[in-house]
Structure to design on (177 residues):
């Protein structure tokens, strides 16, 4: 079991990302994001280590979200992580709040316990669209990412701590407007 600290969209604006999930799913053998049973989100940290037990992760989530308000995030590009399989994601415009929350979480729990891609200096804010792009659809997926020319806004309104797989919400805080 792993633990993650996220900010998710629990409102109608999430539909924009969900539509992109459906579009990206055609490049996957099976739709990866719908299979999660979880809302569009940003992940700040993932911990596999027992040192980051539930209480510590929940305390870090609460500390990081203290005083925060709902985040309206704009996306104008689709990017990818070079991996096998390829991962497509929506790139957010720069947002100080995302970086601040990530920093507070990293200060609360030793980043050595966090998965390497989520550590300070390595973390890339992203909203995942598909994690299992089939190798034979890789070029089509890249063409889709390059052709994306929309400007969407999504309101992220809940910070949470989850255990997975499967995704189980341990604690959450609804952010004020």
């Amino acid at each position: 079991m792993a633990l993650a600290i996220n900010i998710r969209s629990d409102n109608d604006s999430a539909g924009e990302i969900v539509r992109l999930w459906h579009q990206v799913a055609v490049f996957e053998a099976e739709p990866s994001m719908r299979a999660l049973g979880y809302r569009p989100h940003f992940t700040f940290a993932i911990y596999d280590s027992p040192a980051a037990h539930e209480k510590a992760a929940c305390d870090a989530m609460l500390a990081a979200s203290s005083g925060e308000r709902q985040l309206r995030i704009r996306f104008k590009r689709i990017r990818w992580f070079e991996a096998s399989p390829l991962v497509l994601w929506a790139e957010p415009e720069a947002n100080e709040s995302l970086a601040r929350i990530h920093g507070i979480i990293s200060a609360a729990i030793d980043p050595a316990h966090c998965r390497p891609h989520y550590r300070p200096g390595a973390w890339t804010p992203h909203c995942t669209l598909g994690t299992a792009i089939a190798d034979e659809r890789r070029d089509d997926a890249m063409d889709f990412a390059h052709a994306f020319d929309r400007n969407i806004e999504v309101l992220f309104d809940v910070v949470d701590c989850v255990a997975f797989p499967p995704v189980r919400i341990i604690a959450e805080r609804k952010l004020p407007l």
